[in-house]
Amino acid sequence: MKRLITTVLAAGVALPALAIDASLELGVEGRRFLEDAAYPGQVDDQWSVYVQPEFVWDADNANQRFTFMPYFRKDFADDERTHADVREAMFMQWGNQWELRAGIGKVFWGVTESVHLVDVINQTDMIEAIDGEEKLGQPMVHGIWLAESGTYEAFLLPGFRERTFAGEAGRYRIPVVVSNDAEYQANAEQMHTDVAFRWSKSTELNGYPLDVSAAVFRGTSRTPEFLPKIALVNGQPVITEFTPYYAMQNYASATLLYALDGWLLKTELLHRNVQDDRFEDQNAAVTGFEYTIVGPFESNLDLGLLAEYQYDSRSNGNTLAQNDLFLGARFALNDMSSSEVLVGLTQDLDYQGSRFVFVEGSKRLSANATLDVTLLALTADAEDVVIDALQKDDSIEVGLNLYF
Amino acid sequence: MKLITTLVMTTALTTTFIAAPIWAAVDDGGKGLKISTDRKERDLGWGDSQANMTMILKNSQGDTSERKMRLKSFEVTDDGDKGLTIFDEPKDVSGTAFLSFSHIEKADDQWLYLPALKRVKRISSRNKSGPFMGSEFAYEDMGSFEPEKYEFTFLRDESCAETMTCHVIESKPLDEFSGYTKIITWLDTEHLRPMKTEYYDRKESLLKTLKMSEWHEYKDKYWRAALMDMENHQSGKSTRIITHEIVFDTGLTDADFNQSSLQRAR
Q1: pLDDT given for residue B114 in this prediction
Q2: Which CATH architecture has domain A3-403?
């Protein structure tokens, strides 16, 4: 993060002085799968490395900035997981009440922890992490207007990113590989320009903080439908491949967060009207709380208790979160190495045998290094097709990250 | 309807009664409150400031760990101040930023920006008694001093910091979520600067001592300490905050303290 002050002079014209910040993150990740693979060709161990440099040019005395953050992961087991992305290449300019961003970037919408239902701007980089927390860079023009009545944001989203999926050697996949040749409902296919608007406001109710937001989006669905490709094998019809199909959608969402003393009460609501009648519309909600206990058991730790209920109107096979309960506990040890442990359980309330349990731990090893460890265990009822496909994928993952 | 009114009235009366306990500390004739209000008034009008800081955490074995951060502060008339803390080191948290609006009469607003997720997350204000970035400072030790949040008792005058005389004042936090039952502050009689502060935990035993030193005067009026040493007597851990540089009147406005500016803080 060394700050280099460079004065740029070009053809006798003095441009604003630029401060350039450069930093680098890189790491190595190892996964071991604890059960024999469900499908032929899948690996038991998976090693990979990643690199993510970041460059930030800040104009001195002008509210302008350009950020560039490419990303590359080399996976030694699954070729599909070897991938590069521009996470950010964004120009921004701002005044007291407005901000304009143009380029490639990431935007997060939402308040809940167990699923990010309303977060729609960026495509999920699913092959990077199955928890859905990693996103692909999205081309956008993003305008922000700050008013008394709230923050208004408008998005123009030219260009679409396809969701990433594991290849044949990879774990966390369905029995049949997902094709790389996606199909679209939009005539312009990947080049369709989507639009979105969002309003958000931080206010109060009975003297306690209340954050509300509402958003609409029209364009290509980030969630693919899957079209089976059927061939005759030994005279029997067999699904040989799934083609991702991205339909057009009209989307509306809302979020609520109420901070009542130690409680954070959170709700996300989503309606998705899929324009292709072959596929179901979606009405979904996630609601719950986070309650923090400071210094329990005479210790120095913060203990965050989480509970969220997930509902989705779509039928089994399209979602994991149709009628599920998530329970979690986050332990922040408040030690010098910022150690944290998050333990979570998602229990399906329709299929009693379907649940997944995870433990995520992280700590700082030195001023330049962190370590994280994730344990994931899944069990499934046979009728619960999505999670059943993954049930041999219990794993332990260890990541070492370096920062310069 | 009448019943409800009666109930509300009764509750209000009960609350008033509890708020003015008969076992209150020795009546100091309002001297503790007067000195504390005077302390606040002397510091009014500072406007805005930006500071560069290093925080050094030390555990009971003597191992140390450093955090580097920048703090932007904005004075709000008739309410608590606004603050934006940007973390530079350790590098894994670089770009993480913390926005807080202190309030006198209601819960504080606090948000954390997590740059990897581009997520702004509201933090429960109940966390005020929790450690700030793993240090011996609690979030509530970092906020602006607001006399409305305490009940004061003047204890005595005594010599302090070698050559000075200090007023010794006891403050009891009125906020039920404070981690302290009482705070004892040594204010030098000349400038009313907190030279030493003792924090007592919920069991009323001495938890921490804060010593502030290397005072500098800014704008001919406002005193700031370049060294803050917090020692935890129960855990044996300590934290030092060094302010390398503090600049006033930097042109910050209210617009530099919102969730949008939080996301581009660096």
Answers
A1: 93
A2: Beta Barrel (2.40)
